[in-house]
Amino acid sequence: MTSPAIKAERLQQRLEAFSHIGATPAGGVNRQALSPEDREARRLLAELAQARGFQVFQDAMANLFIRRSGRDDSLPPLLIGSHLDSQPTGGRFDGALGTLSAFEVLEALEDARLETPGPIEVVAWTNEEGSRFAPGVMGSMAFAGAADPAQWQSLAGSDGASFSGELAATLAALPEAALRPLGTPLSGYIELHIEQGPSLEKEGLAIGVVTGVQGTRWLKVTVTGEAGHAGTTPLPYRRDPMVAAVGMMHQLQASVMPSDADARLTVGRIATIPGSVNAIPKAVTFSLDLRHPLAARLDAIEGEVRTICRVEGEKQGCSVEISMAFDMPPGVFAPGMIDTIEAAAGRLSLPSKKMVSGAFHDALFLARVAPTAMIFVPCRDGISHNEAEHVEPASIRDGARLLLEATIAVADILAKGA
Ligand code: HGY
Ligand code: MN
Ligand code: MN
């Protein structure tokens, strides 16, 4: 047995191969959850796994698991991984880096014939992004028992697709992945991910040891007025939901983030009904993505949203309805796991800092059912959810090396505690 080592070139080749699946002309990827592109990426990963003699499983949410046996296979597996689905104009590293680095760890263990105390499994969680089918982190939420998938069966996607139909097609597309129950026991979870923010690069640090994830809340605002003729309806006769919606968005952007440096408010999607150039809309809908590290502040910001929307709606004689599409409270990771990751980074002489994640991740739900940790690597200018997303080869190598070191360390610690 030799000591296991990451093959950085092999990992780069894997990242390159996956970046061709759903590739966009601008150099990013469009590999939305449960799409044909997502199915193609899952198939490629399953084929790579089978070529190495690893076992492949999927559960009722199409979470994909790749298993390498350990000395005692009766022990629950240590899971390492992330997601393969992307934003519509996503980058080639968000999710894919963590999933493929985890696969590289499995290959490095296999190359070295290193026997881990228990099985190690790579996981690709279904629908982390939540862009096509809201909410996000569906696969890991269901796996952790934090949501019942039955509630999503009649869900329609942003493209009108049927969630249940696309899920069934995804499961059927990988018959060689043996079906396993949702929420099988695990001993722990480690996720490598790009920071998706500027701090590590700005501070010249190789690694972020993630201590927790801030809270996220998705609201859908529906403003209903009166449809009318664009040419014949004078101002006093209008109940224009677009005027009300613009007032709401302007007020919210002028108050929430400028008054709280930790708050995040984003309008990413807006639609008018019927959406005709020469008709005053009957209704306008827009999304609100709210984030904050403190749950109480998230509540306060949601209260501010509701007040501002009510007032601006009344001004235009419009009715307002606000629904919640996603509510992910802030969470923290186990101190022991954080220390183990930090110590592993020290052994590899990788400069690191502890930090809270601004983005949500599957790890947040895994932390509810097992000892969980996250590792961040820097991405160029902190850009993500953007086709220009980029990670330097040295960061890719550092992240995978640390994931390997941490996997071996955590596997040993958890086995001793079993
Ligand atoms: O939106 C998020 O925080 C994650 O990147 N999907
Ligand atoms: Mn991600
Ligand atoms: Mn993302």
Largest sheet data: 10 strands, mixed
How large is the share of residues in beta strands?
15-25%
For the record, the CATH class of the largest domain is: Alpha Beta
The gross shape turns out to be elongated
Structural class: alpha/beta
CATH superfamily of the largest domain: Zn peptidases
The first-to-last residue Cα distance is 25 Å
Cα Rg: 23 Å
- Which cofactor or ligand species appear? (2S)-amino(hydroxy)ethanoic acid, manganese (II) ion
Q: How many strand segments?
A: 17
CATH topology name of the largest domain? Aminopeptidase
Mean pLDDT: 97
Tell me the series of helices and strands, N- to C-terminal. HHEEEHEHHEEHEEEHEEEEHEEHEHEH
| Uncertain parts | none
Q: How many domain regions?
A: 2
- Helix segment tally: 11
Share in helix: 25-40%
The CATH architecture of the largest domain can be named as 3-Layer(aba) Sandwich
Question: Care to describe what's here?
Answer:
The protein is of the alpha/beta class and 418 residues long. It has two domains: 8-213 and 330-417, Zn peptidases (Aminopeptidase, 3-Layer(aba) Sandwich); 215-328, Alpha-Beta Plaits. The protein is 34% helix and 22% strand. The protein is built from eleven helices and 17 strands. The protein has helices at residues 8-19, 36-51, 96-111, 138-143, 163-172, 199-202, 241-255, 295-315, 335-347, 363-366, 393-417; strands at 55-58, 64-68, 78-83, 120-125, 178-179, 188-194, 207-213, 215-224, 228-229, 264-266, 270-273, 279-280, 283-292, 319-328, 331-332, 352-357, 372-377. Strands 1, 2, 3, 4, 5, 6, 7, 15, 16 and 17 form a ten-stranded mixed sheet that branches. β3 (78-83), α3 (96-111) and β4 form a beta-alpha-beta unit. α3 packs across α11 (393-417), α7 (241-255) packs antiparallel against α8 (295-315) and α9 packs across α11. The protein is elongated and about 80 Å long. The two termini are 25 Å apart. The model has no long low-confidence stretch (mean pLDDT 97). The protein binds (2S)-amino(hydroxy)ethanoic acid and manganese (II) ion (MN) (2 copies). One manganese (II) ion (MN) binds next to loops.
